[in-house]
Amino acid sequence: MSTQHALLISLIEKPSSGYDLARRFDKSIGYFWHATHQQIYRELGRMADHGWIAADEQGNSVSNGEPAEADGVEKKSRKKVYRVLPAGRDELARWVLAPGLGLDQREEILVKLRADAAIGPLGLADEMARLIALHEARLETFLKIEQKDFAVGQADRTRQIHHALLRRGIRYEEDWVQWAKDLLPLLAAPAASDNA
């Protein structure tokens, strides 16, 4: 998956300014595909160069407590609102139907654990406890979203898919926390001789 495709999805759901898109991205797709705000702005430029999106400039009157007109000239700020063009929809459909690269699971702690196993106890218990707390916080966030947004009966296909994605996140976080808690005592224990 590329950040560009994730952004195309977000813009299809709702045309947005770069700032609004970055904020929405953090609260939705950002839970499973990370992108910095700087990266989002850079990718928007590339996507526009590809002809996948276009930006419409919208003027807004400045309202910071001062009169909108100074010296007879109305102050305006220009905000670019990005929308997906037909070529962008075509690219997204092409990407969706292309075979995936496989099971690409990059999780740094797994490599660190492999190093701990290879060269002896490195003191990963504190790091694992920190990660458990982060995953528990994300799980709590997901459960709150589910309770707030999906508590009532049947919904249309789009909402059902969104709920299924959220349920995947909930299950992942529940499993991750349980796995890490099961591993934590081993990381906190002193090394035993493998030759005993």
Automatic annotation (TrEMBL):
<dbReference type="InterPro" id="IPR005149">
    <property type="entry name" value="Tscrpt_reg_PadR_N"/>
</dbReference>
<dbReference type="Pfam" id="PF10400">
    <property type="entry name" value="Vir_act_alpha_C"/>
</dbReference>
<feature type="domain" description="Transcription regulator PadR N-terminal">
    <location>
        <begin position="8"/>
        <end position="93"/>
    </location>
</feature>
<dbReference type="InterPro" id="IPR036390">
    <property type="entry name" value="WH_DNA-bd_sf"/>
</dbReference>
<feature type="domain" description="Transcription regulator PadR C-terminal">
    <location>
        <begin position="106"/>
        <end position="187"/>
    </location>
</feature>
<dbReference type="InterPro" id="IPR036388">
    <property type="entry name" value="WH-like_DNA-bd_sf"/>
</dbReference>
<dbReference type="Pfam" id="PF03551">
    <property type="entry name" value="PadR"/>
</dbReference>
<dbReference type="InterPro" id="IPR018309">
    <property type="entry name" value="Tscrpt_reg_PadR_C"/>
</dbReference>
<protein>
    <submittedName>
        <fullName>PadR family transcriptional regulator</fullName>
    </submittedName>
</protein>
